Amino acid sequence: MPDISLTTLVLLCVAALVAGWIDAVVGGGGLLLLPALLLGLPQVPAAQILGTNKAVAIVGTSGAAVTYVRKAPVQVRTAVRIGLAALAGSMGGAFFAAGISSDVLRPVIMVVLLGVAAFVMLRPSFGTGNENKAPATRARIVAAIVLVGGGIGFYDGLFGPGTGTFLVLALTAVLHLDLVTASATAKIVNVCTNAGALAMFAYQGSVLWQLAAVMAVFNLAGGMIGAWMALSKGSEFVRGVLLFVVLSLVAKLAFDQWS
Predict the structure, then answer these.
(1) What is the largest distance, in Å, between two alpha-carbon atoms of the chain?
(2) How many other C-beta atoms lie within 10 A of the C-beta of residue 143?
(3) pLDDT tens-digit series, residues 127-181
(4) Residue 169 contacts by C-beta under 8 Å, 6 or more apart in sequence?
(5) Global pTM exceeds 0.70
(6) Cβ distance 82 to 149 under 8 Å?
(7) What are the angstrom distances between the C-alpha of 91 and each of 127, 157, 163, 179, 222?
(8) Cβ–Cβ contacts within 10 Å for residue 86, how many?
């Protein structure tokens, strides 16, 4: 582990706690955790920052997934199928990541996110369970495996920011899930995407395991608290957090693009 001050370690652990909470409710915890690591460890190579981020995030996401599965009506079999496709997609995205400039992707992602925010605000029933109660057909499940799993998994390996949020939105739209169930399903899928990326980083020796272990304890606590709050407060609470995270992600991408 690099030589860091106690103050920096405490701040990183607080960031891990809050990021775990955000990630459990609606995804997007990396919006806080990754910048915190970059700011707290400016002397550490970017690859080790990314690898450590994944090692921390997978623990919190796994804890949130377990909490959701015990309480929410999640179709675990479908979620695992989507997750396996996402794992393959994330490894494929990571393979091509070196040849793609994030400067090209950021404007595209910002436009997509602004469209998403407008859609959610203009459709109050989106993700409440009242908009469409028809069960997902086999065709929709296949589309979720290919497009949500493979497509968003590829994006996670290629670029990354907002993956959990994209998963929640896509699962809500494709499988007609309410936002709480979509968040639960997204956690299982996100565990798989994190596992694929972490395996690659671990193979390359790009994980600060000691630091990750300390931060992971706080990320796990935040994840379990966030999952419990989402389950108890329902879809309207998740919808509010979703809008906040989407707009925050747009602001961060815009800052990165033009700073």
Answers:
(1) 55
(2) 16
(3) 555 455 556 688 889 989 998 899 998 888 776 667 888 888 889 889 888 888 8
(4) 116, 120, 182, 242
(5) yes
(6) yes
(7) 30, 6, 14, 27, 27
(8) 33
Cα→Cα distances 67→62, 103, 108, 135, Å: 9, 37, 34, 24
153 Cβ neighbours under 8 A, 6+ residues apart: 85, 86, 87, 88, 89, 90, 92, 93, 189, 192, 193, 196
CA distance 39 to 118: 32
Question: Do the Cβ atoms of 152 and 93 come closer than 8 Å?
Answer: no
Phi, psi of 114 (to 5 degrees): -65, -40
- Those residues whose C-beta lies under 8 Å from the C-beta of residue 183, and which sit 6 or more positions away, are 24, 25, 26, 27, 68, 168, 227, 230, 238
pLDDT tens, position by position, 166-187: 888 889 889 888 888 888 898 8
Residue type, 255: F
Phi, psi of 178 (to 5 degrees): -75, 165
